[in-house]
């Protein structure tokens, strides 16, 4: 089963990197996904669902942290030659990484609890924490600076949260969709592995020679 978990984890990491880099790779083939009003569904990402899923199901808690944070780091490093160092490494970055780590911690909290409710509540909790912490970070580093839309007071912080609400809606939808796929796929994998293991068991009987 450990080999199955490892392959599943590597597939998740690879997929998360590809999805995160997609909007930055599309312009290379003539598709402009970076303009304001672009067709690309920003924040519709599997990464928080992977955090929740890893925290809830991975036997190793360090692996649960390593998969999403590793995907985040790899995609940031790949973004460096695509968009430049200032875009790949930004002031709010430690807050973003910490917010995804909080998502894994939410997964730890719902570990060993069955039912659809744990995924629904866990996904909403993880995304709300991410929304609150990352946008606080955006405001904190931008507040009062030249050209910033956010003033260095409560009004500026509230404006930052209000501006981010459309992204919260997309994030919630993506987390619910990907969580359903991940938990469902993992349940199917576990069922098939269990069936295969049972088929290897030889019935014990005195009539067998």
Describe it:
This protein has eight helices and no strands. It is mainly α. It has one domain (2-28, 43-179). It is globular and about 70 Å long.
Question: Mean pLDDT, nearest integer?
Answer: 87
Largest sheet: none
Low-confidence stretches: none
Number of domains: 1
Helix content: over 70%
Number of helices: 8
Order of helices and strands: HHHHHHHH
Beta-strand percent range = under 5%
Rounded radius of gyration (Å): 21 Å
Distance from first to last alpha carbon: 31 Å
Structural class: mainly alpha
User: What coarse outline follows from CA principal-axis ratios?
Assistant: globular
Record field, number of beta strands:
0
Oligomer: single chain
Task: Describe the SSE topology.
Layout: H1 2-25, H2 47-57, H3 61-83, H4 85-88, H5 93-109, H6 116-142, H7 154-163, H8 165-200
Helix pairs in contact: 1-3, 2-3, 2-5, 2-8, 3-5, 5-6, 6-7, 6-8
List the defining traits of the structure above.
0% strand, 209 residues, globular, 8 helices, mainly alpha
